[in-house]
Give the backbone structure.
Amino acid sequence: MSGEDAPAQQQNAVDQKQETKPAEEPKAEPPKTESAEAAATPAATTEKAPEEETFTYRALVLTGYGGYDKVKLQVKKGKPALKAGEVLVRVKVCGLNFADLMARQGLYDRLPSPPVTPGMECSGVVEAVGEEVTDRKVGDKVMVLNRFGLWQEVAVVPASHTFLIPDGMSFEEAAALPVNYITAYLMLFDFGNLRPNQSVLVHAAAGGVGIAATQLCKTVKDVTVFGTASASKHEAISQGGVTHAIDYRTKDYVEEVRKISPKGLDIILDPLGGSDTHKAYNLLKPMGKLITYGAANMLAGQRKNLIAVAKNWYHQFSIHTLSLIQGNKSVCGFHLGYLDGEMELITQAMNTILDLYKQGKVKPRIDSTWHLEQVGDAMRKMQERNNIGKMILTTEPMPEEEKKEEAKKEDKKEDKKKEEKKKDDKKKDDGKKEEKKDDKKKEEPKKEEKKEEPKKEEEKNEEAKKEEK
Amino acid sequence: MSGEDAPAQQQNAVDQKQETKPAEEPKAEPPKTESAEAAATPAATTEKAPEEETFTYRALVLTGYGGYDKVKLQVKKGKPALKAGEVLVRVKVCGLNFADLMARQGLYDRLPSPPVTPGMECSGVVEAVGEEVTDRKVGDKVMVLNRFGLWQEVAVVPASHTFLIPDGMSFEEAAALPVNYITAYLMLFDFGNLRPNQSVLVHAAAGGVGIAATQLCKTVKDVTVFGTASASKHEAISQGGVTHAIDYRTKDYVEEVRKISPKGLDIILDPLGGSDTHKAYNLLKPMGKLITYGAANMLAGQRKNLIAVAKNWYHQFSIHTLSLIQGNKSVCGFHLGYLDGEMELITQAMNTILDLYKQGKVKPRIDSTWHLEQVGDAMRKMQERNNIGKMILTTEPMPEEEKKEEAKKEDKKEDKKKEEKKKDDKKKDDGKKEEKKDDKKKEEPKKEEKKEEPKKEEEKNEEAKKEEK
């Protein structure tokens, strides 16, 4: 199963309440037999037929576009068949990415329509190999990069989308590495052509790409890193290598950069889009490179916010060549999700990154690990920018006692949902009012909202983590 | 005198018919004395006062925007004063650039309003040094890069704008090198980040930048160079390193490239602008870089062609970030003329280029050398794309007999001017008609024009060269 085949496979899956021993599921239907070709794969011959019939696994499924609750845990049946060149991976840990949040709201066109299993990266162990696979074997520990379909216990992917996990790297680190580090690497060293003594602006410096970019900048001599993050994260990002931490919530980052670097910057990584792209362009030095790789400004609230989307479109940066020529500037766009045809390029980047890992020069930072059942809370924490480092999901089953806790929380969530609905409606009104205000002030409604919210949330996360231990 | 001071200096100059011994000029006015500061420079003390008064030199002056005849040879009086950090260079050879052609038509905003001396590069010998100049001395052979003001026998420039000519490099090569090679170098290795096995499209591969870019591409392992030029130049550019020569006049270069490189190209250097920039963008591979560095398509005819300009503006490439992101593409603009504040960057590039020259890896190719009196013919040859390599001007006085020949030609030119006027008018009409035609066909009117013209022109050039020898 390549990522593209995932939706078809889900049609075989039975949507049911998640159980710890789903093999006991009484309503088991006979699994549809795979094609003759698939049945002939080594995977099929090494497994006994009865096991194939009873083979089940848990998978997160995006059931429709919308809020955090649209990603549901389901149990699927039937062992996925392997085509030539593919491997079956028993997934241990999955990475969360900003594109997953966009995808849930229907803002990311690289994810097929729901129902579909999201997930662009994971780590795990090879459990079966298809024909023509020569460089992977059963038992290999691998990290996986795919367009989607990796947030499940079992994933079938082309062997070329897997990378061997080096000695000493945990499954958590391995799941945190591919998307963020390849993204940061290609932006800085391919488009950015980063060289000694240059200056770089890293937005969201405490996020996954931000931390990866900072570490990669530090592999080049005398690079100055400007990093934006809220004040509470400054200690962490400074320790991580940021030279000048800027609190974008209380200060104008453009002014702060100009104070230190009046001529501007050599490289700006822009995950925000909208009016921030304009600011970035004006902050470039001659021969400077602006690399835009997202539109985080489009995400406001847990459901698609049409005003935020429209505003982002309205402010979308568009550039004439004459301006580029007169400024001696470069504008680049990057998104790993659109680069899946370029596995050679990606593999080269990955090999360099793994060498840097082995030399101790880069190391993924994990913010927190969540059970599959908690994916909604994990997504919320990420979207509200309360993480420092990578958000990851583990496929480890949740202990029974923890589940009871979750059930209680679920009840609370129902209440909260109603509350949120109200707030979302309020926000839409605010959004309309805000529309005519200065861009500078756009962070404020979010902040107000957070004052009421995240404490509860944070407490819950703390509990969750304690219980995990 | 930095380039910026040139116009002021020209106010001191007396416009007069050019003579071989202009010191005998009878109408000599007393030179205006320079400021006290300038008079105190070492240059002033090393020269005797009488020489200062009689100091004259020939200079090309753009007297107004328009055709080839707008650049006139004048004699200037009064020795230019040196400020701290400046040197006075006795100019031997000057380089012609496309920007000079644009400037003559009033299409290049880095040249001050006429009257002004054009010229962005030259080679010569240091004749005097100002205060605080420590790294240049009288007698040094140098090449010079300046925003303008170098098409004259004597130029005063900041010492930082001069580069020592290495042993074995002729003044001709030295005048041909700075603009084309620094432009090609920064485009390919800074914005382009050229690496082994990549593919590059070089338009106008027989032009100055084209030849420099091709040579620089060949310094990187296994780079494939696609070069466009008219068929008669294919042998020359192939010998110069172009892997696939494409005759853009008879073939669609996009189709030709796709035949060989179906996925597209890694780097495209675009001096054309307009609709060719759109084509280039679509020809990029993922992670490809489009570097646009001119708008040669704006030049049609010897005077500003409003239709060509409007068309170029109308077709001007404008790009949204979302398209860049989804394509994983980069669009860069480059023009050395707007980079004059970045002498450190330029000096680094120049040092690398000179190292490559010493290693025999790059070598400027001279198309032809012209006397200052022949600048109009030289510009015409360049604009009509009849050159292979660099067009240069020498400040060597023209032999008397040759001058007589020139005088005869002048008479012919008068006739030709009338003829051209007619043609220009005709062209304007053609242009209007052409406006609605397909872009593909836009080269045709030029070709037709050439059928009648360049033979005579070529014969004249041949004569001129023979006479020079």
